[in-house]
Every structure is written in C-alpha cells, then in structure tokens.
Design goal:
The chain is an alpha+beta fold and 262 residues long. The protein contains five helices and 14 strands. It folds into two domains: 4-74 and 226-247, Immunoglobulin-like (Sandwich), CATH 2.60.40.2250; 83-219, C8orf32 fold (Roll), CATH 3.10.620.30. The strands form four sheets. The protein has a four-stranded antiparallel beta sheet with strand order 3-6-1-14, with no helix packed on it. Strands 4-5-2-13 form a four-stranded antiparallel beta sheet, with no helix packed on it. Strand 4 and strand 5 (52-58) form a beta hairpin. Residues 146-206 form the Transglutaminase-like domain.
C-alpha cells in the first residue's frame, strides 16, 4: 500500500432535547474507504472546498457517533486563488479581527520583500511569541485575546497568523485537519495563505508534518469549521477520541518547503 492516512473518530454525547445536529468530521471531498456510524441515517450537505456535513436527527438519550476512513496521500497541485478568495479572505472575521492588528502587522511584516517571506516571518513570530498550552483560552477568544495572553492552542495560533496576513493583504483562511504525528492527538487547525496566486498550508505550532495533513473543513475562521453544530436539539457533549495515522511512515517537515493541502 502506498502513502496513506487512516482516521478513527468517536464522539459521545447525551441528547436532552431531540432534534437535528450537523457533524463535520469526514475527509473533505471524500475518501477511498470510509464508514459512518450514526444513531439515524445522515443527510449529507456539501459546502465549498469539499467540506461535507452529515445532518442527523438525534433521539433523546446517550449516543456515540463514529467515523472511520482511509485515503491516499501524495503531492497535490496547489489550488488557485480566485478573485472571490481575494475579497473574502482578506476581510476581518469573527475570530480574526485583522482590523485591530494593523500596527503590529505593518510594523513587523509590511516592509518585507514578498508574500512568501512575509508569511514565513509571521509563522516564525507567532511560533516564538505564543506558548502552546493544552486547555488555554476559551472558545470566545479571538486573535487579539490570544496574542495578548501569549498562549493558546492550535486554533488560536492559526487565528493570529490569519489576522496578521490579512492586514498586509495576503489572503489567508482557516483549515480543520487530521494530523498524523500530533501529540496529544485530536482534531487540528492550520491555515492556508496565498503565495503567487496559489494556496499553501502553514502551521505555526509545528506539531505535525504538513505533508500528512488531511483537510476536513475550510473557512474564514473556526466559526466556519465546527465539528458539531446543534440544529434544534440540546445535548451534553461527553467527549471524543481522534486517532490519525500515516503509513508506511510519517513524513519529515523542516518547514522550508511550500506545501499544498489536498
């Protein structure tokens, strides 16, 4: 078998009011092999960039949702940045208030010679400025909150990088991924930035090789990529486990290459 990624995800929750919920845990665009296990038959909703939501009607009680899948890994051509992307992904958004980070971005990165140099400098700065602390912050924290606190988790690192890129008119977007090699293992967040009209993936945490990342969902920030959204039901989330592995071996990433995300 050639290079591949395999994932096994399980979520547990208690539904206190029946209704619908949307789960976004599947590989974007599909997989060679995949298996869903839901309390009721799901209805799939497709979004841009291959994002797929499974909408399920949940009865009252305790339930477990499971997703197992495997897909091939290999070099991919970087996607083109459209005019729509240029407009959407340079605007401020809920967790990426780039309009409030102008002074920092312009003074540190505005004078650098090209987009690649600027993005790499942003990634390096954020990786040095922020400490990765499991459980840090709150779901309400935006990039400014994170930068001032000096610590966060993967989504926070991505939000700060995205905000700084947008200030200097580099389109940048948030991506939820599976990340073989990540420790502790969980869902992971990275970002894509536009370099010479193409999308490339960056990760200021440096916690997993980018070559083995697999896209789940893409959006302006974490608000667009939640793995679970209630649509009328009420539930208590009891926990989840995520296992993502790459075979036959985990790639090495020294951070020097431009890498496109499938």
């Amino acid at each position: 078998m050639g290079p591949h990624v395999q994932v096994d995800v399980e979520m547990s929750f208690r539904v206190t009011k029946p209704g619908s919920a949307a789960f976004v845990v599947a590989f974007a665009g599909g997989a060679g092999q995949e298996e869903f296990a839901y309390p009721a038959p799901p209805r799939q909703v497709a979004f841009e960039h291959g994002t797929r939501a499974q909408v399920v009607d949940l009865p009252e009680g305790e339930h477990v949702v499971r997703y197992r899948a495997q897909r091939a890994l290999g070099p991919v051509e970087a996607g083109r940045v459209s005019t729509e992307d240029l407009i959407r992904y340079t605007r401020p958004s809920r967790y990426c208030p780039s309009d409030r980070m102008g002074g920092l971005a312009l003074s540190r990165f505005g004078g650098l010679p090209d987009a690649r140099t600027q993005v790499e400098a942003i990634v390096r700065h954020v990786g040095e400025h922020l400490s990765y602390v499991v459980g840090a912050g709150s779901p309400a924290d935006d990039a400014v909150d994170t930068y001032l606190a000096g610590e966060g988790v993967c989504r926070d690192f991505a939000h700060v990088c995205i905000s700084l890129c947008r200030v200097i008119d580099i389109p940048a977007r948030f991506v939820a991924v599976y990340a073989p090699g990540l420790s502790p293992m969980d869902f992971h967040a990275v970002f894509e930035a536009a370099i010479d009209g193409r999308w490339y993936v960056f990760d200021a945490t440096g916690l997993a090789p980018r070559q083995s990342l697999s896209r789940i969902a893409t959006g302006r920030d974490a608000a667009d990529t939640a793995f679970l959204s209630t649509l009328g039901c009420e539930l208590d989330f009891l926990g989840n486990t995520v296992l993502a592995t790459a075979g036959p071996s985990l790639p090495e990433d020294d951070g020097s290459e431009l890498i496109a995300l499938a």
